[in-house]
Amino acid sequence: MTIIKYIRDFIKTCPHLDEFHQGIGVDYLREDATAYMIESVPVDPIVKKFMDGGSIRQFAFNFSSREVYGSDVLENIENIGFFEHFSEWLEEQTDSRVLPELDARRMPLSVQATTPGYLYNNELDKAQYVIQCNFKYKQEA
Fold first, then answer.
1. What is the distance in angstroms between the CA of the first residue and the CA of the last residue of the chain?
2. How many C-beta neighbours within 10 Å does residue 101 have?
3. Which residues, at least 6 apart from 104, have a Cβ–Cβ distance to it below 8 Å?
4. How many C-beta neighbours within 10 Å does residue 12 have?
5. Which residues are within 8 A (CB) of 29 and not within 5 positions of it... i.e. 6 or more apart?
6. How many Å apart are CA 63 and CA 77, to the nearest integer?
């Protein structure tokens, strides 16, 4: 299985996701609100290489949502507030060692937000919000 699939399965367990969402897309964000997406971000996958051929690796990704958007300040605060809760949830999962389940060759180490959530793109009544994240794991030779 691919790393992005493991991460997607993990994020599906987040209690802050809208209960009416239509799933989490990969490299595709549905036009309707509320929709979620994971997309990989270019980064050197090898953080540290060991003499035995093993390594510490990383997978950088964006987690995005499309939300209802407009002049309602409270609604927009709620939209961006989701990402604050999501970031805290990732930190709690890392601290509790509740991480994406990987295959036998790979051991998860951490998952964290590397930026706060931010407005990425907006239209008349919908907006895309993004948070950048990083997943680190140890891979055996």
1. 17
2. 11
3. none
4. 12
5. 35, 36, 37, 64, 65, 66, 128
6. 18
Those residues whose C-beta lies under 8 Å from the C-beta of residue 79, and which sit 6 or more positions away, are 65, 67, 68, 69, 127, 129
Dist. CA 92–CA 2, nearest whole Å: 24
Q: And the tokens for 31?
A: 């036009």
Using one digit for the tens of pLDDT, what is the confidence trace for 13-68?
999 997 767 789 999 999 988 899 999 999 999 999 999 999 999 999 999 999 99
Enumerate the domain spans of the chain: 3-139
Cβ contact 57:137 at 8 Å: yes
CATH architecture of the region 3-139: 2-Layer Sandwich (3.30)
The whole model's pTM is what? 0.93
Helices (H) and strands (E) in the chain, counts: 2, 7
Q: Which has more confidence, 12 or 23?
A: 12
- Tell me the pairing of strands 24-26 and 35-40: parallel
